[in-house]
Amino acid sequence: MVMPSKGSDANHRIVIALGDPAGIGMEVILKALASSALPSKLHPKLVGCRQSIELTYARLKARGISPLANPKNLDIQDLPLESKLQPGHPTAKTGAASFEWLTQATDLLLQGQGRALVTAPIAKHAWHAAGHHYPGQTERLKELTGADQASMLFTAISPKSGWRLNTLLTTTHVPLVAVPKLLTPELVTAKLNVLKAFCERFKTKPYLVVAGLNPHAGEAGQLGQEELEWLIPMLKRWKNEHPEVQLDGPLPPDTCWLSAAKAWQGIPCARTPDGILALYHDQGLIPVKLLAFDEAVNTTLGLPFLRTSPDHGTAFDIAEQGCAKANSMVAALKAAWDLTKSN
């Protein structure tokens, strides 16, 4: 269990934006902060409505849920809700609140008031109802920080084998029909560089694989031309420029994650990738969520600070029922701590 963070210095402080208050964010945060799996030196600073999280705590305690972190012992930057909250029912006001909380939490990081940012889930439709038309939190963070690129990487450590799964998305929250137009040699090169740098945190000479765009990676042009026209030549150039890295691809998307699945389950495999580059959102997220839904962490790279988030949504249908699992939030907090330097 983490200790109260009042007065802790920024090197130990993880800033947590509470997400949409009508969802499970506050519940999984209270459960996660009571976990013995977190480093004892980790000091959380919550950004959101104090009254709302205290009510969440009281309701969960009344249901006999434990252990829970007591909000009275937590450092909270209080940004009160303007109206009464009804769990499970997002509105424009809950969207406006989660948008403001993310903005204020980001400001703390930009001021050097924290080591990393952890975000609870938000509802895009609630943001839109509040007049904030962003595809997601990643895009808002990119705007707030002025980052040139923000990359979305999902990382998870298998509880069975201890192996780390890393999948980076080349494109994120865009319609599928737009993906081929957005994919360029320059973009894939940039994302592959990001993936390489991340995987080098754990291995000096990582093995990376790239999924193809089309079924069977185009099957020599029979099922699509993108692989032949530019993806294969681009990967050859990249490989020549980085001879220290093992690189395979483009691989057929339907088999690209098979060796990763074996490694996740602890099954011996001849070659297991240290990082996989997916070309679009569902191509990467379907295998990640099938393998590691409770453990996966959404990690934003390319910002002035590290941001992590649990790999699940707001789950309005089970808000404050006490049954939300905190595994992914615990993993997000641990990743925020482990992937940043400690003084």
Briefly, what is this?
The chain contains eleven helices and eleven strands. With 343 residues, the chain is α/β, with parallel strands linked by helices.
List keywords for this structure.
single chain; 343 residues; alpha/beta; Isopropylmalate Dehydrogenase; 2 domains; 11 helices; 36% helix; disordered N terminus
Q: How would the blueprint of this fold be written?
A:
Blueprint lengths: L12 E5 L7 H8 L10 E6 L1 H13 L12 E4 L13 H19 L5 E4 L4 H6 L7 H9 L5 E7 L6 E6 L9 H4 L2 H15 L7 E5 L14 H16 L4 E6 L6 H8 L9 E4 L2 H12 L4 E5 L4 E5 L16 H12 L5
Parallel strand pairs: 1-2, 1-4, 2-3, 4-11, 6-9, 7-8, 7-9
Antiparallel strand pairs: 5-6, 5-10, 10-11
Question: What can you see in these coordinates?
Answer:
This protein has 343 residues and is α/β, with parallel strands linked by helices. The protein is built from eleven helices and eleven strands. The protein has two domains: 187 residues, Isopropylmalate Dehydrogenase (3-Layer(aba) Sandwich), CATH 3.40.718.10; 151 residues, 3-Layer(aba) Sandwich (Isopropylmalate Dehydrogenase). The chain has an eleven-stranded mixed β-sheet, sandwiched between helices. β1, α1 and β2 form a beta-alpha-beta unit. α3 packs across α5. The radius of gyration is 20 Å and the shape is globular.
